[in-house]
Design brief:
Blueprint: H1 20-31, H2 38-44, E1 47-48, E2 53-54, E3 60-62, E4 70-71, H3 83-93, E5 97-101, H4 105-113, E6 118-122, E7 134-135, E8 141-142, E9 147-151, E10 158-161, E11 164-167, H5 178-182, E12 186-190
Parallel strand pairs: 1-4
Antiparallel strand pairs: 2-3, 5-12, 6-9, 6-12, 7-8, 10-11
Length: 194
């Protein structure tokens, strides 16, 4: 059995109900001995302040671009931030990070196997994403992911969510939809030597 990286668990709630990216990054930074709190990380995240525009049925017509910064409010009604803008916060504390998009899950397993925690974006219930999307004011289409967490072992994923810790799976390859998700999922990793 592969050892679980000693990534500390940090509660997301009640302070950051939609700020899982900031909490996951804080957990990974603590793994490397960087003593920063989740509130500081969330304040440092780039933001896209584009206002939410809804369709008559309540679905999202237009909103921000997570490649620019966090869309919405991580303290309330927010959605996500993608790896590239979140990496700006990582770079403030340590170098060596990489924003990976659409890589095969084996790349992620290898990084974690080498002792490098990896932030992964996926759906909350680990199923294929519901095909909901919106356009940014520039016309860019965005398909949101619902959750970001730290992958701390190729064989197990531990998350801090709703103030509880859950051992989500015994084999990442067995997770429903994981291979398909990884073909367009987002990850961020960094090198332990930096």
């Amino acid at each position: 059995m592969t050892a679980l990286l000693d990534v500390p668990l940090i509660r997301q709630r009640p302070e950051l109900p939609t700020g899982c990216e900031a909490v996951a990054l804080t957990m990974a930074l603590h793994y490397y001995g960087v003593n920063v709190d989740k509130e500081t990380v969330v304040r440092q995240m780039p933001r896209d302040s584009t206002p939410l525009i809804e369709n008559p049925d309540g679905s999202v017509r237009s909103w921000g671009d997570p490649e620019v910064g966090f869309v919405g409010d991580p303290y309330g009604d927010g959605v996500t931030i993608n790896p590239k803008p979140l990496k700006q916060v990582l770079d403030h504390y340590r170098g060596g990070g990489t924003a990976l998009y659409g890589k095969d899950f084996k790349v992620i397993e290898q990084a974690v196997g080498e002792g490098k925690p990896v932030l992964v974006w996926f759906t909350i219930s680990h199923e294929m994403p519901v095909m909901r999307y919106w356009k940014t004011p520039a016309g860019k289409m965005f398909l949101p992911r619902d959750r970001c967490t730290v992958l701390s072992s190729p064989a197990q994923m531990m998350i801090s969510s709703l103030s509880t810790t859950a051992n989500l799976l015994s084999g990442a390859e067995k997770m429903f939809g994981w291979k398909k998700e990884s073909s367009f999922g987002f990850t961020m990793q960094w090198d332990a030597e930096h």
